[in-house]
Design brief:
Blueprint: E1 7-10, E2 12-17, E3 22-29, E4 37-39, E5 41-46, E6 53-58, E7 69-82, E8 88-101, E9 104-113, E10 122-124, E11 133-136, H1 156-159, E12 166-170, H2 177-188, E13 192-196, E14 201-204, E15 211-214, E16 217-218, E17 224-227, H3 234-246, E18 250-251, H4 255-262, H5 264-273, E19 281-282, H6 290-297, E20 302-306, E21 315-318, H7 321-333, E22 338-342, E23 350-357, E24 360-368, E25 383-386, H8 391-403, E26 408-416, E27 419-426, H9 432-438, H10 442-454
Parallel strand pairs: 1-11, 3-10, 4-9, 12-13, 12-17, 17-18
Antiparallel strand pairs: 2-3, 4-10, 5-6, 6-7, 7-8, 8-9, 14-15, 15-16, 19-22, 20-21, 20-22, 23-24, 23-26, 24-25, 26-27
Helix pairs in contact: 3-4
GO molecular function: ATP binding; metal ion binding; ribosomal S6-glutamic acid ligase activity
Cofactor: Mn(2+); Mg(2+)
Keywords: ATP-binding, Ligase, Magnesium, Manganese, Metal-binding, Nucleotide-binding, Protein biosynthesis
Length: 466
């Protein structure tokens, strides 16, 4: 063996596992052990049975259990391994690159095991040693020294690879266009996307270990949640979402924002609080206030709208004051909550849907009502086409989504004589109409945002410095 090409290792060394997002790790080199091992936790498989992946987490810095790096890799095998203390267990086996510095790297197989008592985060067995490697059992750290400083919050993203994510879509409509588009786009990127029926989730609520169960099993820890909660299950759906938030999982839209945006009265109060322009709106509970209520909004025609209406349902145009009073009386007779709103005549049955992702308008379409219907919803036969929006319309759409802290939103606005007016902020906007109109991959832009948020998972705050 040529001495100049020999790689010398001590019994303890600095290595890197760049494929796993671990640029620095201390390992024990043990030629008495056949198999290499990485001491990880939260080990679980995901993805299709034909090509399973495993995800796990590791504390790469000794005595720093507050610092967690999430990893994922393809499963290449599952083997029975006997440790030095005689314990036998079945372990998942992955293949990854071992970086020994100075341009020396090679693929190795590593087993995953949860053994929190081990002082070394990695054990390098003899199977992982190339022919040009010599182990000096009385020496330590013969390879170039590395620093744990790389795991600081400012530097970690630059060294972390794009790992596969496990994502949950909360939806009761797995066959809808929007849900299928999200699943397809995620899987195209190598992620595992699971559709979970919100109403079949049930929760264990406690201070130490809150859990979410589904069909008799505890749900795994997801990297991100994409809520597609229907209007009929808003209350229970947001309760489930709050449980995910309690677990510290990233949710594209939070429970508070969804709840506020679904209640049209609450939503208009939020918009007003942020000084965002909207049609004049009024609300009252007492039938004695009907005339005054109409007077606050202005003269007919008026819009009478149920507080939790969706897709144009529960929205009525009253063309005269008498008609408005009749509609209001009818809604009150049904004990329904509603509001009265000024009708913007100059909009002529058109509105603008702005699709907002991560604080940016990524697409916009003009929707026009069908026939004499004043409602432009595509579900009611309206048509859509891509359109350009003004800087003021863009600013208001972004501001409206931020008012509800929504990472994904459909913001509807009208073009009036005195500027744009926000009609609604939708926390579960449909993808089909606006993707067809704009010819843009909006599901892809959603995943760009998710990947930016959870690759790597946010590091936990700590006072202790690396």
């Amino acid at each position: 063996m040529n001495e100049s090409t020999t790689i010398k290792l001590g019994w303890e060394e600095w290595f890197g596992l760049p494929d796993l997002g671990l640029p620095t790790i201390k390992a024990k080199v043990d030629t008495g052990a056949r198999t290499s091992a990485l001491h990880a936790f939260d080990i679980e498989t995901f993805g299709p049975a034909s090509k399973p992946r495993v995800r796990f987490a590791i504390h790469p810095v000794p005595d720093r259990e507050d610092l967690t790096i999430p990893c994922s890799a393809l499963v290449v095998d599952r083997r029975e391994v006997t440790s030095s203390n005689g314990e036998t267990e079945m372990r998942y086996v992955i293949e990854t690159t071992l970086d020994a510095g100075n341009g020396n790297s090679w693929p190795i197989e590593v087993t995953l095991t949860h053994r929190g008592g081990m002082s070394s985060r990695m054990l390098l067995g003899r199977q992982a040693l190339r022919d040009d490697v010599i182990v000096m059992p009385t020496e330590r750290f013969l390879l170039p020294e590395r620093s744990f400083d790389v795991y600081s919050a400012k530097r970690i993203k630059s060294v972390t690879p794009n790992r596969a994510l496990r994502i949950c879509v909360l939806s009761r409509e797995p066959n809808s266009y929007s849900t299928k588009r999200i699943v397809h786009e995620g899987e195209e990127r190598g992620h595992t996307v699971e559709v979970i029926d919100t109403t079949r989730c049930y929760m264990a609520i406690n201070a130490l270990a809150p859990e979410i169960h589904y069909d008799g099993k505890r749900l795994p820890r997801y990297d991100a949640i994409i809520p597609r909660i229907g209007a009929t299950v808003t209350s229970y759906g947001t309760a489930v979402l709050r449980q995910f938030e309690t677990l510290g999982i990233y949710c594209v839209n939070g429970s508070a924002g969804i709840t506020a945006s679904r209640d049209k009265l609450h939503a208009h109060q939020v918009l007003a609080g942020h000084k965002i322009g909207m049609p004049m709106t009024a609300f009252a509970a007492s039938p004695k206030d009907t005339s005054n209520l109409i007077g606050l909004v202005g003269t007919a025609p008026l819009i009478v709208k149920l507080l939790e209406s969706t897709q144009g349902k529960g929205v009525v145009l009253a063309e005269t004051k008498k008609a408005a009073e009749s509609v209001i009386d009818a809604f009150r007779g049904l004990k329904a909550n509603f509001l009265v709103q000024d009708f913007v005549k100059e909009a002529s049955g058109e509105d603008i849907r702005c699709f907002v992702v991560a604080g940016k308008v990524v697409a916009a379409m003009r929707r026009k009502s069908a026939g004499d219907d004043f409602r432009s919803n595509l579900h009611r036969g309206g048509t859509a086409e891509s359109c350009k929006i003004s800087s003021e319309e863009r600013r208001m759409a972004v501001k409206s989504a931020k008012a509800f802290n929504l990472g994904l939103a459909g913001v509807d606005l009208l073009r009036s004589n005195d500027g744009p007016k926000i009609l609604e902020v939708n926390s579960s906007p449909g993808f089909e109409g606006i993707e067809n109109a704009s010819k843009k991959n909006l599901a892809g832009q959603l995943f760009d945002h998710i990947e930016d948020q959870v690759r790597p998972a946010p590091l936990k705050a700590t006072r202790k410095k690396i």
